[in-house]
Amino acid sequence: MSPAPGGLATLATVRQFLTDLVPEVSGERAGEVRAAVKLLETAEIELNVRHNSLTTETDDLIGYCREIGPLVGRRETAATCEQLAQRLRAGATSMTALDELWRDTRSLTTSLLTALQRIESDPATSQAEQRAAADLLERVYGCLGAHARSRLSWQSVFPVYAPAGVDSHAVNDHRKDLR
Amino acid sequence: MTATMMSPARPPYDAQLADALRRYVGAEWERDVAVDGLRRLAGGTAHETWAFDVHDGYRGETHPLVLRRDVDQGMLDTDLAIEFELLTALRGLGIAVPRPWWCDGSGPLLGRPFMIVSRVDGTDIRKHLAAHPDTDGPRLGLQLVRLQNRLHQVDDLRPELPSGLPRRGPEGELAEWDRLIRQSGIEPGPLVGAALAWLRDHLPPTREWRLVHGDFKTNNLLFGADGAITVLDWEMAHLGDPVEDLAWTMLWSTRFDLVGGLLSPEDYLAAYEAESGREIDAATLLFWRVLALVKLAAIFLTGVSRDGPVPPTQHLMGRGLHHIEAQLADLLLTALHGTGNR
Questions:
Q1: Inter-chain contact A167–B322, Cβ cutoff 8 Å?
Q2: B83 and B145 share a domain?
Q3: Chain A hits for B130, Cβ within 8 Å
Q4: Do A170 and A158 meet the contact criterion of CB atoms below 8 Å apart?
């Protein structure tokens, strides 16, 4: 007797069911069913790697937040980062908990990143501080860009990555498919 | 079996809409007409679009028409009445756009506000390029640049333009897309947040106020049987900085697009400068390229956050945010390294 199917296998079964259904569904609804199939495809890819991705990304961002805090004069950042790191070390007991930790860390990153941008562009900032801010900004942008690129297979709107350009063909084919 | 369960509501809905169109057009023309061929079309961010044919037995004519109608779950809220007035004005200025027939901003006849325009016989340029790989790309590219520049020759002093046409420069555009992102209630992440902050600190001046199409790309340009090109989808049009339009066009960059397909980014900008006589400031262009990505993010986030159930199509588009983030990272790095290279 084979074991009961896991979550991913269940998703795959539902996806296959919907795929088989597409030819039998009328125009506009068929587009929505095709979209549901694509969503399930990308969700399967995402769920396979999401735990590791969120763990790694959270760790990356906590590290950058620790570096940015002193540069932007936010002393409380060290303690906040330590709390986030403790939550990460404790190990998230569920995907929901890890997701919440990842969101909290991204939220802190947004706040610190915008403060760092101001330091870098503020004429009143010393040249040394500006250089330090620019160096850190370069690394944070690069890191966040890498995080985003690692997720490209989690979506099917844009099939290939082209720097600073979007594949309108894909978007519009998608819109067409979706009708 | 399941298809049987899903399908019963659809035919009556289409039939009801066809009947409402028949009654509406018949009342406008004060005679009986017949409507057939009703089908929903792809495209459009804020409205649903339907093609249909009206047969006028009295005159023995058939009119291919398009219905554009507000939707409850659209990705944007735009004003159909202003778009209708704009189409009327543009035809008066000799710009090829679909002929506007009727607009009803209150919408009781068809359930929601709508407008009806002529359906132009042709193929959108993206599809044309896919079907005709031997097309002379650079030549067509220059033709499109000329067309885009022609739109940008329409300035804010033209009395024909609708008085309600939005006037939005960098600050207004930024405020609008920022507002929609906030309204979505979705945390857009550090890169969109950083991009918004960077935009606020780098607002360029608007040197001239021109007609901005807002969505100038090959799938909104229709190649007619006579070779003329008709410009579609004016729902995001406004008065603003023409560089905004260039940046949005540059966002779409496959072999089926104007930039990256017909012309390289460098050739596109050079052709536009030669055609318009304007020199494109690198810092201004970078601002609008970052804003174009923020705008796309706002559209996607709005689509997935509307009240009520989100259709799978819009949910799917929302996941495209990862791609936008990746590109924002590249452009923010460009900004950090200086904007000399556009």
A1: no
A2: no
A3: 169
A4: yes
